Amino acid sequence: MEASTPPAKKKLIADWKTLNRIFIRPEDDDNRRALFKHMEQILFGLHDFLQKHVGITEEASLKELADRFTDTLIQPHPEKRLSEVISDLVHQIAPHAVNVASPYFIGHMTSAIPYFMVHLKTITAALNQNVNKAETSKVLSIIEKQVLAKIHRLIFKMPTAFYDEHVQNPATALGCFTEGGTLANITALWVARNSLLAPKGDFNGCEQDGVVAGLQAHGIERCVILVSRLGHFSLRKAAGLLGIGNRNVLSIDVDAGNRIKLSALKQCLRDIQATQGRTRVIAIVGIAGATETGSIDPLPQLAEICAEHGIYYHVDAAWGGPTLLSEKYGHLLEGIHLADSVTVDGHKQLYMPMGCGMVYFKNPHILERIAYHARYIARQGSVDLGIRTLSGSREANSLVLASALQIMGSRGYSLLIEHGIATAKSFAAQIKKRPLFQLVTEPRLNILTYRVCPPEIKAELESADTLQRRRLNAYLNDMNRGIQVLQREGGVSFVSRTTLYEKNSLEDPIVVLRSVIMNPLTTLKILNEILDEQEKIYRDNYL
Ligand SMILES: *Cc1c(COP(=O)(O)O)cnc(C)c1O
After folding, report:
1. Can you give the CATH number for the domain in which 241 is found?
2. Domain limits for position 21
3. Three-state SS across 401-450?
4. Which residues line ligand 1 (CB under 6 A)?
5. CATH number at residue 507
6. Has this prediction a pTM greater than 0.85?
7. How close is the Cα of 454 to the center of ligand 1, in Å?
8. Ligand 1 mean position, distance from CA 24 (Å)
9. Span 287-345, pLDDT tens digits
């Protein structure tokens, strides 16, 4: 901090003169130059800087960091100039952030982004449009509708005439932007809930009269949402928020490929039918790219079941959705167009900066079920996008996506997707080759799970009975947990961990190491280094 403090420091004060200036331009020429320099550093340098910083965090632990940030008083007068603040952020704060851009960071769905994303984000910040309403966004609301139509077309492949009719139609909506997959899933289930608890007789619909009146009007005692046990926890949040209750998100067993087990789903539906309408299904959710394993549910079969029972069908493609851009792997999501709604995250495999989720609806009128109007905005018939979104004020993230699609083309994205899947497959082959490891889930997309499992334990597991298996797995679970923590704390590379269940039994948990291969700079050589490090941690601590 000392280095950036100018020698004869003027006392900083907050008054009208200085305040006026910050709304006009930087204070003087020196300051202007300093700001340009910092902007350059933010746009280009921060990336280089992060690149050089191998590892996830610097040595300072979270506890030490927390001790440094305990002052809770807002100072009456300015403490620093803007240039000093930026310099501090670049030199003092950024080094303690997580280097998600490192090719050794393969644990989560957050990764490096193309450098141009930062430029585009800067433009949206500078324009500061609010796409809640046309009066604060104008052309950006129009661009948002266009990009929504482009992704809708990628998913639902409706005829051109359909898109001509709806692309700029203020009375319809093909989907909406949200802050992420969580809000996208909530939006979809909000629509699904209102569809089931629809107006009937004196009942005006659940949005107006509430869930309790809705259940009474329809003679329902319990509403449920069905998803495989690998469903994202945002679905449970949605059920809590929507008054359904998160215990009513029923986890359906998965098959050996971690896809929803159709026989179990059908059995569940038979049990529900036996209640003679007292229990009703709000939605069946198919997963296209499960967060933990990357597996994809049998989407066409789920569509058939939903159609047969008249059940709302949502597909959570937060992770896998962009696979549709790949000619080679798009077919993995076959049947997705049969869904009533589809969640896609932009900040995952569209390599957008944080804060971009989307949800798409096959029926361009269905968002009317959650439409809201106000006296001062979102008037009936206006083009205000805020009429049919969960969020209120919102940044123009759609501009970033619209621009990124122009810069990348579907071909550019498809190269990234294909690289991820190909690298994950080679990584799986390496894991299988090494005696110390066991591949737990094959990469269907670019996510795989494995664990450290010494050969002698592997052999024991093969002939073990249930109790012996549990004991051996418990030992392996402790060990894998320990190895993951030690590797993370080593700070060179990062793989995450989760718990899967053998034979769908909660009594047989398996702790696995989980890797998500999405950084184009992550090579097989790097992945082998990560395995080498895990072997070393094992030898140093568990042998
Ligand atoms: C990431 C993810 C979500 C949640 O998305 P956020 O952007 O973190 O809110 C939902 N579903 C799936 C399958 C995901 O992978």
Report:
1. 3.40.640.10
2. 16-99
3. HHHHHHHHHHHHHHHHHHHHHHHHHHHHHHHHHCCCEEEEECCCCCEEEE
4. 109, 180-182, 185, 232, 234, 287, 289, 291, 316, 318-319, 345, 357
5. 3.90.1150.10
6. yes
7. 33
8. 40
9. 999 999 999 999 999 999 999 999 999 999 999 999 999 999 999 999 999 999 999 99
